[in-house]
Amino acid sequence: MAELNLKGNRRVLNGLVVSDKGDKTIVVRVETLVQHPLYKKFIRRHTKFMAHDPANECGVGDKVQIVEFRPLSRRKRWHLDKILEKAV
Fold first, then answer.
1. Angstrom distance (rounded) from CA 53 to CA 78
2. Which fold has domain 22-85?
3. How many CB atoms lie within 10 A of CB 75?
4. Domain layout of the chain by residue ranges
5. Which tens digits make up the pLDDT trace of 72-84?
6. How far apart are CA 17 and CA 38, in angstroms?
7. What share of the chain has pLDDT > 70, as a percent?
8. Which residues contact 87 (CB under 8 A, 6 or more apart)?
9. 49 CB burial (10 A radius; 0-12, 13-18, 19+)
10. Helix or strand (DSSP H, E) at 69
């Protein structure tokens, strides 16, 4: 996998691939913990990001790291950085 030459500070997120149906595109679900303002209990929130996968190497269930990137299409603003763990 080719390394990205990135300048500046870019956000890096870890998540789970939930879809790989698009050509060179994956959908990554990122979970975050948010504290409830009144009850102080931690709640799981999730967001789905579309990321560019130039080699089509990811599959559903893979744990990946994505990095912020220039806009590639209407909804795709992230790029696959590396695969942390392949699905079984």
1. 9
2. OB fold (Dihydrolipoamide Acetyltransferase, E2P) (2.40.50)
3. 12
4. 22-85
5. 999 999 999 999 9
6. 33
7. 97
8. 17, 59, 60, 61, 62
9. middle
10. none
Residue 80 CB-density burial (10 A; 0-12 exposed, 13-18 middle, 19+ buried): buried
Q: What's the rounded Cα separation, in Å, for the pair 33 and 43? A: 6
Mean pLDDT score, 48-58: 98
Amino acid in position 11: R
Please give the residue that has the higher pLDDT: either 17 or 3: 17
Token pair listed for 2: 């080719």
> b/e per residue, 19-45, with b = 16+ CB within 10 A?
ebeeeebbbbeeeeeeeeeeeeeeeee
User: Cβ contacts of residue 77 below 8 Å, gap of 6+?
Assistant: 49, 50, 68, 69, 70, 71
- pLDDT of 35 over the 70 cut: yes
Phi and psi at 74, nearest 5°, equal: -60, -40
